[in-house]
Amino acid sequence: MAVLAARGVDKRFGGVVALHGAEFACEAGEIHALLGENGAGKSTMVKVLCGVQQPDAGEITMAARPVTFRGPGDAASAGIVPVFQELSLVPDLSVAENLALGNEPRNRLGLVSGRRMRRDAAEALSRLGFVGIDPGSPVRDLPLADRQLVEIAKAIGRRPSMLILDEATSALNRREVERVFDVVRSMRDAGTAVVFISHRMEEVRELCDRATVFRDGTHVGTVDVRGAPKGQIVEMMVGRALREVFPPRPPRAEPSTPLLEVAGLTWGRELRDVSLTIHAGEIVGLSGLEGQGQGDLLRALFGIYARVSGTVRMGGRPVRLGSPRAAMRAGLALVPEDRKTQALILPLPVRDNLTLPTLPRWSRGGILSPSAEAGATTAVRERLAIKTASVATPVRQLSGGNQQKVAIAKWLLGETRVFLLHDPTRGIDVGAKQEIYAVMRGLAERGNGVLFFSTELSEIVGLCDRALVMYEGAVVQELRGADLTETNLVSAAVGFHDGEAGGPASARGPVPVVVPAEVSR
Amino acid sequence: MATLSNRLDLGDTWLGRNRSLLITYGLIVLLLGGMGLRDPDFVGLGNLRQQLVFAAFLGTVAAGQTLVILTGGIDLSVAWNLNFAAILFTQTIDGSQSAGRLVSGTALALLAATVVGCANGIGVAVLRIPPLVMTLGMNAVMLGLTLVYTNGSPQGLAPAFSRDLAIGRLAGVPWALVFWLVLGVGVVFLLRRTVFGRRLYAVGYNPRASYLAGVPVRATLVATYALGGLSAGLAAILLTGYSSNSYLGMGDAYVLQSIAAVVIGGTSILGGAGGYGGTIAGAITIVLLQNALQVIGIRPAGQNILYGGIILVMLFVYGRSARVRE
Q1: Rounded to whole angstroms, how far apart are CA atoms B143 and B137?
Q2: Minimal C-alpha gap between A87 and chain B (Å)
């Protein structure tokens, strides 16, 4: 019997139909994937299931009894606990305080006991196998991946009868994902219903028992994940068969001129003696476990950090990277990690976002020329096929994929030669990902260089001309041609690289998973 | 509540975007209508003309305040920045008609006010002092400087040109209104059609993303606060013209009133959203409200309580809608 089932759910936002007659049911002891492209209605369905949105029509039942959730609180007390992509932690509180929030342990004086709170947190984290997270450190200081792990730990700590993971693994690296999967599997085996939403198909394949696919606001069908032929689920999602996932790689050309040459780049303990060269026309992948310095490398090259040592040359000329402005003038562009808070100014029109880095070009004496600006934005909008009603539309209203195109396109209006891309396909749907791949290949074909960090191995293998694997702040291996495989990337990432025997003495080594007692009861 | 807001959800229509402007202009019409029924002189040409002149004074201070609040900051130093500039102005010129004294007095007053604004900007952008603290501290510094400079009793007379600007007329239209019109066009142009204006909104919405897009965030902030200072200096010249001299405390009322005009005009106190068009309506609203309260017979203490209350109500209304939209 289904732990939670929704039938005939309708939900409209103004004139937009988000759900129409949608159905979904998840049983105890199964991991059920909810799939669909962005805008297919799966997020709305999740919000209806956990009481964030109230359906306009339809019925929700728990163990065959109809229920009404007036808010997330109602759903939570019924045992339905979601973990969303947008993180719900309080940045200024510590990990322990966040985990205990609303249920703080007291000491004899009735005051919050910090010591017990930290001890409980340390216990909970190690039981889940989320090691290397200091319970005392403020959430603000944690890398995105650790924040997501804390978020998951917080949800599990509430002993859900149904756990909803909505893109909750999107910032995690392979090993952390494994860890979360182990925990989720033990919860399933103990009878918890788990709803899993991810854009990474391999993860769905690996983890889930059944999958319900949404398209255009309704369910297309529910399939047994292991029984389904390879292309079937994706076909259900997009409504058509996907053939070539990655754009064709051009045959390896003659060694062309180096665009970006980096030697001995060092920044504190985060970057150690990084040297690399990017040539015109190539896409170079940055791989490795998350948090091994890939993001820091991109940020250091874009001039965000102070006290970086080493030399950087662009087109043979040495450049001093003191600020993003200086990096921009030297021909570098960064598409940062977080599209919504770092790459774009959401309420501003597409046009304003596109021209922000290059405003002086579209003006004379500080006064903007609307015609010059319109010409430039129209051209770049067509070139990248950005889907928007108009360039005056606030960029907030665009889909994730089109927002990411705007974040890339704004650098096409300047004299950019080397693009630094930080996980540009995170959280966007399959179709949009392919468009971004094509955009990247297009950049390279026009003689630019691309340095591309992705947490998805298939992207590195499928898209890049060669890949650099980072480990603890250093580039430990370069893979190209036939050597550029997922297996090689993984073994290099965990430290089995050239001439080194054994694995790294990492603080995040594998730890046996122990299921929390309250979950396995 | 949910169904009500759904029904009133005008979304991205013109009405939806400019709802706060409409509320403010509606308030003006309501004030004029209500007071006009009670006292026809209130809506007479003479009174309205006078009230618009007062609105021009307030609107001048509020021009700088609008820019500063658009960056997500606030300028509490306008009171004594304005006062110090006014005293520099009258003491240097002292009613003289000599071109040299006029130019040097005007330049000195405007320069001093701009430098103070610049210092605010450096404190906020470079030293990262919160705007509230920085400008409040600057206000105290300027108060002290004024007392030292004047020995407690400001001297000097305003020159004829500033008196004409404040109380003179051009074919029946007060010069102050002509000045306000020019200033208004200038500020709107600055915000809508210049590189600086674009950067101002971008920095106000999201300084981090602006920095990553190569926007000179610090320079933009310093320039904004400098313009805030300059507008206090311009208001100083208008106000000395109106009263023919300068006196201690002449800027005091303008801190709260300028912030109120900006907020009532629909500019987000969080920065990034709004503009000077709303502030103009806000300034007129405040001045009419003050006038109405005087006519009804409410004393200054009561007037202050009402401004404060109105600002808080407006903050509640706009703060809520901003959060809902995010």
Answers
A1: 10
A2: 15
Total Cβ atoms within 10 A of residue A244: 10
Q: What are phi and psi of B76, to 5 degrees?
A: -95, 0
Question: Chain B residues within 8 A (CB-CB) of chain A?
Answer: 9, 11-12, 193-196, 198-199, 201-202, 205-206, 208-216, 272-273, 325
Q: pLDDT tens across A130-168, in order? A: 888 888 889 888 887 888 888 888 888 888 899 999 888
How much is the pTM? 0.74
Q: Is the CB of residue B117 less than 8 Å from the CB of residue B108?
A: no
B167: CB partners within 8 A, 6+ apart: B53, B174, B176, B241, B242
Using alpha carbons only, give the angle A298, A170, A504 rounded to the nearest 5 degrees. Answer: 65
Q: Do A348 and B205 touch (CB under 8 A)?
A: yes
SS3 assignment, position A410: coil
Distance (Å) from the C-alpha of residue A397 to the closest C-alpha of chain B? Answer: 11
Position of tokens 């600006």?
A373
Query: Is A368 near chain B, with CB under 8 Å?
Result: yes
Per DSSP, A257 falls in state -
DSSP-assigned letter for residue A289: S
> Tell me: the pLDDT tens digits for B239-248?
999 999 999 9
Place of tokens 């094509």: A438
Q: Which domains does chain B have, with CATH numbers?
A: 49-325 (1.10.3470)
**For testing contact with chain A, the best of B198, B205, B326 (most A CBs within 10 A):** B198
Six-digit token string for B139: 């206000």
H-type helices in B126-275, by residue range?
A: 131-150, 160-167, 175-193, 195-205, 207-212, 217-243, 253-264
Rounded CA separation B73/B55 (Å): 23
pLDDT at B308: 76
SS3 of residue A39 by DSSP: coil
Of A344, A367, A368, the CB nearest to B209: A344
Tokens of A309: 């040592």
Is residue B147 predicted with pLDDT exceeding 50?
yes
Question: Does the pLDDT at position A185 exceed 90?
Answer: yes
Among the partner-chain residues B198, B205, B213, the one whose CB lies closest to the CB of A347 is B205
Q: Which domains does chain A have, with CATH numbers?
A: 2-244 (3.40.50.300), 257-331+417-424+440-498 (3.40.50.300), 342-414 (no CATH)
Cα dist. A297→A237, B27, B28, B36 in Å?
36, 55, 56, 68
Could you tell me which residues come within 8 angstroms of residue A153 by beta carbon, excluding any fewer than 6 positions away?
A99, A124, A125, A128, A130
Residue A252's pLDDT is 66
Q: Which of A324, A342, A368 is facing B198, going by the closest CB pair?
A: A368
d(CA A313, CA A276): 11
| Highest-confidence segment of A80-94, A482-496, B160-174 | B160-174
CA distance B326 to chain A (A): 9
Average pLDDT across chain A, whole number:
85
User: What's the rounded Cα separation, in Å, for the pair B129 and B137?
Assistant: 10
**Are B209 and A395 in contact, with CB atoms under 8 Å apart?**
no
> Per-residue pLDDT averaged across A249-253, rounded?
72
